[in-house]
Amino acid sequence: MNMDKLILCSPRLLAESLSGKRLLEEEISLPEKCFHVLLSTKQLIPIPAIENQKGSVKCIRCGNTSKYYFSEYPCGICQQKHLYCRNCIQMGRISECKPLYIWNGAEVHWPKHSNPLTWEGKLTPAQSNAAAQLEKAVIEKLPACLCWAVCGAGKSEMLFPAITAALKQGKRIALASPRVDVIRELFPRLEQAFQDVTIEALYGGSEHKAGKSQLILATTHQLMRYYQAFDVLIIDEVDAFPFYLDKSLMYAAKQAAKKQSTTLYLTATPRKNFRLQMKLGKLPHVFVPLRYHGHLLPVPKLKLAFHLTSQLANKKLPNAFQKWLMNRQNPQRQLLIFGPKISMIKELKEVITLLLLQTGAISASEELQAVYAADKDREAKIKQFRNRELHALITTTILERGVTFPSVDVAVLAAGHEVFNEAALVQIAGRAGRSADDPSGEVIFFHDGKTDAIEKARQMILDMNERGKKL
Amino acid sequence: MNFCVYCHERIEQPLTWSTWLTVKKNNVLCISCTGKLEMISGKRCKVCSRAWSSSICLDCQQWRELGDNIERNYSIFHYNETICEMITQWKFRGDYLLREMFRNELKSAFEKQFANNAASLTVIPIPLSESRMQERGFNQSLALAEMLDAPIKQVLRRKSGEKQAKKNRKARLKRDNPFSITEPLKQAALIVDDIYTTGTTVRQAAQQLKFHGCPEVYSLTIARS
Predict the structure, then answer these.
(1) Torsion A61-A63-A68-A71 (CA) sign
(2) What proportion of chain A, given as a percentage, has pLDDT over 90?
(3) Could you tell me if B147 lies within 8 Å of chain A, comparing CB atoms?
(4) How much is the pLDDT for A113?
(5) pLDDT value, residue A375
(6) Could you read off the pLDDT of A89-100 as tens digits, one per residue?
(7) Which residues contact A364 (CB under 8 A, 6 or more apart)?
(8) Residue A351: what are its φ and ψ, rounded to 5°?
(9) Which of A10, A404, B103, B114 stands 20 to 30 A from A318 (CA)?
(10) Longest Cα separation, chain B
(11) Among candidate residues B152, B156, B149, B153, the one with its CA nearest the CA of residue B209
(12) Distance (Å, rounded) from C-alpha A153 to C-alpha A284?
């Protein structure tokens, strides 16, 4: 709906679309007159977008303080040089020249839903234990609670009681994840579970844009447009990215949450600082060591291949890999092959296709595809794989988490490469054995020398299985 | 350590005798990004730089018949998906630093292609309308012009109007000239801009310049679509 009309019909709608936001003027699509009225009546307040004090610079929107991500431009309007932030420039340039605006008008009262949950499924005992803890955190207004659940534990369902509790109290809720795929997969499920609640999913290129619902799903970047907006903030896959991106997620989360709020963290692979806080008893937490179907996690097999790096560089497949491919326990399973670099994946596609054709695992070369972050057909290929139209998929770490395929075997080529850190390997291993019909799945790491990450990942899986057995 | 200004990947520079002993031009793009740019090479239209097998392309023949007002346009790259994204990121998203992607090529094109009259050329940027300037904060054409070792004169002014990119060829050609002159220029002019599409913008600017006494107008553009 056009914003012009929107304001004419209701100041409440205006408050809904602007409250809890921190935006550039160009993101506030109001007629100029209205904008100036809101400014002069102090319903919108300008704040500097870049903090520049004593040589330390900070972007107020994304929290970037790294000099590398700042640059300067000569402003043609005020004839001065301005710093601007390159870190979050995709969302509109933050510079010294233009302020951000925060809402200071009427507060929005979100509806109190008496019985919002329309989901009729049942939680397993392990799930309901965790769900109760998260619900308690919301009801008792704890500042934070972490749920350490193995891959495939059914995390989204465990959130339903906590979200329900928040909706009953008329709270505003956001669920954020660094991964677009996670948001895309969660949205329809939440929509199903809370049919009478307005929900929006925000990501680059998403259908929803307004972000004025009570329940918001957002990627890290989209979360940056919010300021003191949410009573309950759920962060899924806290540790899904390299550290510096993690930092901006944490910054965005802190900014988007109200001062008095509850943050729920969901993760399968908590980082060191979280593990430390848990050990020190500073962070309330709950474990879910068993998958929803009650089976243990597949433990990765480690396979040494001496000349792995040089062989892969020469587009040759290590013998160990070939042997494994030909002797899989269940050749019916789909195959998910991870590689460290896009270039390597593209190069290996051909040889792996040939090998699979030879062994009869696939009957046409189209049954194997390669997919990576910048791939235009990424969504389509993932969908094809999920529909079993593809037998095998070669991928980078983009598919390491958040996406679920029922029955796959997982191989990692060059598991010793630096992109495969501990968390990534645990997540990758977690792609196998997701369905109750086929809960085992093979996981195999090919390496030419065990790294710390490989050892620790395997250990983390074994530890979780130990805990699981006790249940 | 160097990082690619466009994709932020690390730039790996092999250490060889030549890189160690000579002062090398600083690469700002990584190999992968550089590889996605296509330089215009081989035969091209001598007027507009379009890849063309004979000497003047059909468009330019038409312009000639109507009485063309530019001597020549030189473009460096083919307009492909990558350069389109790069220019978008630079000018529409406003990442000013990205002009560095074009610095080396722009300078060397200027030195090689306009060597005969480099000393007498005055560089003329295409101006932005005021509303565009409010949006972007900088003029991309001026940003390019400033990277050349040549005097710049901002003698053109633009009446405010709609965005070029949204218009088709016919609408562009028919439109009234959006430029006016603030001060006549009596030397040869080199217009610098990012993209040459139909050549209308350059020719409209040239028309004004020539009308007020400029003897010759050339143009240098980053990409030829």
Answers:
(1) positive
(2) 58
(3) no
(4) 96
(5) 84
(6) 999 999 999 999
(7) none
(8) -65, -40
(9) A404
(10) 57
(11) B156
(12) 19
Q: Give the closest of A76, A84, A92 to B133, CB-based.
A: A76
pLDDT of residue A343: 86
Q: For the segment A411-460, what is each residue's pLDDT rounded down to a tens digit?
A: 999 999 988 988 889 989 999 998 888 888 999 999 999 999 999 999 99
- Tell me the chain B residues in contact with residue A340 when contact means C-beta distances shorter than 8 Å: none
Residue of B nearest to A90 (CA): B93
Closest residue in B to A86 (Cα) is: B95
Give the model's confidence band at A86: pLDDT under 50 very low, under 70 low, under 90 confident, else very high: very high
Token reading at A114: 């008496």
A235's enclosing H/E stretch is strand A230-236
B-proximal residues of A, 111-140, CB under 8 Å: none
Asked whether the beta carbons of residue A84 and residue B94 sit closer than 8 angstroms, the reply is yes
Alpha-carbon gap, residue A466 to A202, rounded angstroms: 38
Q: Which of A176, A228, A230, A227 is nearest to A203 (CA)?
A: A176
B-chain CB neighbours of A24 within 8 Å are none
Q: How far apart are CA B180 and CA B204, in angstroms?
A: 10
Q: Tokens standing for A439? A: 């809960």
What is the pLDDT of chain A when averaged over all its residues? Answer: 90
In chain B, CATH 3.40.50 sits at 45-224
User: For A45-80, how does the pLDDT look when each residue is reduced to its tens digit (9 = 90+)?
Assistant: 999 999 998 889 999 999 999 999 999 999 999 999
Give the chain A residue nearest B131 (alpha carbons). A77
Cα B65 to Cα B61: distance, rounded to the nearest angstrom: 6
User: Residue B154: its chain A contacts at CB < 8 A?
Assistant: none
Where are any strands of DSSP class E within A268-346? 285-288, 301-304, 334-338
List A residues 40-79 in contact with B (Cβ-Cβ < 8 A): 68, 71-77
User: Across the interface, which of A68, A72, A89 has its CB nearest the CB of B94?
Assistant: A89
Query: What residue in A sits closest to B130 (Cα-Cα)?
Result: A77
- Beta carbons of B96 and A72 less than 8 Å apart: yes
A272-276, A300-304, A454-458: least confident range: A272-276
What's the gap in Å between the CA of B29 and the closest CA on chain A? 15
Check: CATH 3.30.390 for B45-224?
no
**Angle, alpha carbons B65-B69-B72 (nearest 5°):** 100
Q: Which two tokens stand for residue A237?
A: 């896959």
Which of A76, A89, A97 is nearest residue B95 as measured by Cβ atoms?
A: A89
How is residue A325 written in tokens?
């491919």
User: Of the ranges A77-81, A358-362, B32-36, which one carries the lowest mean pLDDT score?
Assistant: A358-362
Tell me the domains of chain A and their CATH numbers.
3-103 (no CATH), 125-288 (3.40.50.300), 301-470 (3.40.50.300)
Q: Is the pLDDT of residue A163 over 60?
A: yes
What is d(CA A89, CA B29) in angstroms, rounded to the nearest whole number?
Answer: 19
The average pLDDT across B177-185 equals 92
**Rounded to whole angstroms, how far apart are CA atoms A167 and A26?**
32
% of chain A beyond a pLDDT of 70: 96
- pLDDT tens per residue across span A169-196: 999 999 998 888 788 889 999 999 999 9
- pLDDT at A1 > cutoff 50: no
Q: Does A19 touch chain B (CB under 8 A)?
A: no
8 A C-beta contact, residue A100 and residue A47? yes
> Is A93 within 8 Å of B139 when comparing Cβ atoms?
no
Instruction: Report d(CA A148, CA A468) in Å as an integer.
Output: 13
Whether A387 has its CB under 8 Å from any CB of chain B: the answer is no
| Interface contact flag, A71 B97, Cβ < 8 Å | yes
> What are the chain B neighbours of A87 within 8 Å (beta carbons)?
none
